[in-house]
Amino acid sequence: MLEWFKKRWGLKNAFQVVIVLVVFSITGSTLLYVRQPVYNVLGMTESSPLWLKIILCIPLYQIMLLFWGAIFGQARFFWEFEKKSFHRMMGKRGPAKASAAAVGE
Question: Which of 23, 25, 70, 103 could disulfide-pair with 75, CB 3.0 to 4.6 Å?
């Protein structure tokens, strides 16, 4: 399984895969810990719409992922991961795909 992640994410060794998985775990746990205080600061209550809470959690998660990634020495991996995620969320093609599509036209 670690080999599959290593190949998929382009990582150098199994230890790096473990570090990346730990960062994902810590980020999720941190989000659970800090979301309620953030909601309180923004004046959100129990009756606030769920979709609004989710939309606010997404950028908070992204920021924390970069933070923890940097703490664990994987800033470059998580920066590239964030760029890919952003392109997927916005429905944009990545730089390599966009240029390949332009050549084919």
Answer: 70
